[in-house]
Specification:
Layout (H helix, E strand, L loop, with lengths): L6 H5 L36 E10 L2 E11 L4 E5 L6 H8 L7 E6 L2 E2 L3 H4 L2 E4 L11 H11 L7 H12 L14 H12 L6 E5 L7 H16 L3 E6 L2 H7 L2 E6 L2 E7 H5 L2 E8 L4 H9 L3 E4 L2 E8 L3 H10 L4 E8 L2 H11 L1
Parallel strand pairs: 3-8, 3-9, 6-7, 7-8
Antiparallel strand pairs: 1-2, 1-4, 4-5, 9-10, 11-13, 11-14, 12-13
Length: 343
Amino acid sequence: MSQTSSADHFARPFNGPGTGPPVPSSVPGGSEAESSQGDPGGRGSPAIHALGLHKRYGKTVAVASLSMSVGRGEVFGFLGPNGAGKTTVVKMLLGLVRPSGGEAMVLGAPIGDRETRRRIGYLPELFRFQPWLNAAEVLALHCRLLELPKRSWDQAVADSLRVSGLTDRSGDKVGGFSKGMQQRLGLGVALLGDPELVVLDEPTSALDPVGRHDMRQIIRGLRTRGKTVFLNTHLLAEAEQVCDRVAVLDKGVAIATGTLAELLGQHGRVRVKLGTVDGSCTKILSKFGAWQRDGDWIILERIENDSIPDLVAAIIGGGGRVEAVIPEHQSLEDRFLELLDER
């Protein structure tokens, strides 16, 4: 991968580490459509709005008619297994890949809008920095690419180093950084210029537990400041801790979208310990869903939370004795796997 910068890269500023040769730098590509004149900056519109977005490579459908909306100031999780089309969607939204059909607006402007790209911070999954530069020099280079006022560079670099936890390594050559440290630096680059929308593609994949904790704190801090975070990840436990809403993508299709409560709260399972389990009791259990024995316990799957009191009342009304009831909520991982199985 080339590490030299072309004139086109320097001519098209973008707030994020480069995703292709040369790297890092501003990312070329996308249209230069004018922003909405009725709403300068598009601040009254959703952060992201896509309608029927799809992408085809030859006979392969990477994304199939994706529609979604991401509100301002929310942390939106974009989830799916490897190969689901998540990164393709990200690249279309950023104007790095041209859609085969459909349309999308980002921060109130058509995807790829040049001026809007200045308001987006992007941490790609795969990137490289010039190994001969130190961390502070990488950040200063991106201040230049963003055309930030030169008088603000020192403070911007210091803030990014502090947020990414690299202040003590600011003078060290990037070529000696671990993958996790480079990912921290990539985050620092993405946050330069105080972007309104921060797009993070697998941001914790190379981080240790401390780094993942720090990343969650940074994401929460961005939300507190009113920023929108689009989190593309397959690490469901991370998404469950920070996301306000999520979309689940599989084979290029959004199969579920909503808040975590909406995705997880409709159904769960309950563990019930009964005095005896006779024929009449099994008939009652079957009316409330599939069940199985687990030692002294009965486990009912996919039971609505509001139905648990009715279940207990029915067992007692049928002459049974309920010794214990333990409702269990699905984890996001369990629900995710269930959604995939349903396809």
